[in-house]
Write a structure and sequence with these properties.
This protein is of the alpha/beta class and 844 residues long. It is built from 24 helices and 34 strands. A hairpin with a 2-residue loop joins β20 and β21 (674-675).
Amino acid sequence: MTVRARHHLVSPLLASILTTACVALPSPGKNVAAPEENLAATVHPEIWPRADWPYPEDASVEARIDAIIARMTIEEKVGQVIQADIASVTPEEARRYHLGSILNGGNSAPENDEFAPPGEWLALADAFYDASVDTSGDRTAVPIIWGTDAVHGHSNIVGATIFPHNVGLGAMRDPDLIERIAEATALELRSTGMEWTFAPTITVPQDGRWGRAYEGYSQDPAIVASYVGRFIQGLQGKPGDQPILSGPHVLASTKHFLADGGTDQGRDQGDAKISETELRDIHGSPYVPAINAGVQTIMASFSSWNGEKITGHKGLLTDVLKQRMRFGGFIVSDWNAHGQILGCTNASCPQAINAGLDMYMAPDTWKPLYNSLLEQAKSGIVPMDRLEDAVANILRVKIRAGLFEAGRPSDRPYSGRFELLGSADHRALAREAVRKSLVLIKNDKQLLPLKPDSNILVAGDGADDISRASGGWTLTWQGTGIGNDKFPGATSIWQGIQDAVTAAGGTARHAPDGSFVDKPDAAIVIFGEMPYAEFQGDLKTLQLKPELKGPLATMRKLKAQGVPVVAVFLTGRPLWTNPEINASDAFVTAWLPGSEGGGVADMLFRKTDGNIAHEFQGRLGFAWPMTADAKGPRLFDLGYGLTTPSASDLGTLSEASGVVNEEASAGLFFDKGLPTASWSLLVSDGQSDRTRITTTPAEAIGGRVQVRAVDHLTQEGARQFISGGGGPTVVELVTHAPIDVSRETNGDVLLLITMRYDKRSSAPVKLSMRCGDGCGGEIAPAALNTLDVGKWQTVGVPIKCFANAGADVRKLDAPFQISTTGSIDFSLSRVALGTVADTILGCE
């Protein structure tokens, strides 16, 4: 059955879960539709299920909240509903502005050191806490709360256990193990003094093109719903009278409410163009067990429903979530998501709090937002009772947590116990999760499991790379460019295989290109996606990017040499891999297994006595595509997965991708010395004399600029620009179809320029982005003109630098312009958007 055919079904498992939870949901076969199914953004709360919030109203708690609010100034109330990122706020500023919360974003860390040791995280937690409870000047002391994206373990901290991403955990079908993983994650969080994680992600992805699909357990809401309550219980403990922080627990936050996994074409932060019943039955159903489990916070989605941003949707946030579903915690927004609401900016958005939002995540815009919100509260644009209601919701969660009595983070139970990070017990738990999450797709002639006392070749480009096995949201936002040395105590897949084989008396060799001297008994080829997070992972078609398809040739070569091939696929989603399946004798989907590569090795080999060590039990949580067309037919249905004794007979699969063009990398403007599709390379004087460069050698501006092809990585993989000065010289990449990079700007993405100075300019060098005639932003970072001569390097500039300088990033027709009035000799190889650079320039 296709995904589309499943949309309007309530599975028996989901019905069972909801019935057990005592919620009022229409039974299968008697689905009650909304009065209007014309894809409007209007909700009908009466058709939504009722959840059972487990915390009864406590008169003493309410009296305490009233007393605190009565003491608070309006400035303190406004500060309480704002959350700032640690990269953009100091403890003293948090004190001065009475901030209620801080977070560490994907690339934020103490002293901007993403690999800071755990002690520095704990010290910073103390500093912010101390600032928040300072009562000097008759301040009202309200402890600050720290939120972090511990989405697959405490994954911002060096040495922590990195569990498989949710796409793998969903394949386990094991709620008991899910709860134990949450318990381990909570302990590791507590060791560094943090008390709140933005997890679990309970999205129900419906399109594998979405760059966050791996954050969902399954496309089936029943599978997602079966995990939610157990994971929250593992993080928070069972709801009761005792403060949450009195035990080995932290606060949870389900995300993203609502339908972030149902957007059109799988576009991150996009629009879910679906009916209200589909919104309710697919994307809303996991929130029932979440509320029943007492989840303390819920994060509103960046995305829209039928054109209206969720973060500003009063019907969903207030009428449905708070009133109909009886959620009794607080709602926090996503990263500057309020700025995307119609009529709002990052600096001003009363619409969000008036719709029911309780806490603004305003990481780098918190100060102007504070100022505008303060004025709006004083003028009545934000009613005082709504502001105080939001503050009360936040205080209620802090009281349930026991935050007022918990003391400094370093004085709390489990704080400073850094031996909990990556402990043997937690690594064993992660290894078990890896074993249970792997899905056996193909096993011709029962090739797997292999005999460990064999001659094993390990090939492909993903074997000895823990970062790649871990995916995004690992130490950094995108999880890229991180060496194995940043994962102390972890095991790569190659290391796991080598350990298993050598312990049994066999031999193992690692050769990414598949080369060998002595013919191996079998080859294990590890390949797949590179790490990514959020919109950086959005795809147009369901296939690997062209630069990641090299291991296919290795598989074909090995098979032609008579070597049995086991393919191990690292991926955040099912992708069209028919050629790789054909080129292998056994095919295993390992998803994004994390730091315990030994778990992959466990499934590939028998015991030394010949018996099976561990049986494959993973089953697809998402249907597998037959082609690269996201709307095309399915090769394997939801739930497919071979068991270890099984032998497959897939025959030869069609290798027609079903799409016209290969997947193009989004945000790539210039590569290997050439503009990509729809882009043109121009050299001009900044006025009327413009030359489009299509061949080399070439001249421009009346012969004042020479353009040549030079080598970089590949033959003629770059273009050299030589100008003798005498007037302005502008090299730019332009298009007739302007692009919108507002998502990227909000996400702190960089403009990446891979270049080499052959001779520095005799005048300042400027960078700019253009957004049409008379529109643009120009910066002149001094460091740009001091780069080493003769050295290729990738220079990064935050896109927000250009936005701050005046560029409208929603309509860029020239996202890259480099100019000078002096003589210059430089070469250019690549221009793209991304997050990894050798040198990051400032916004001067």
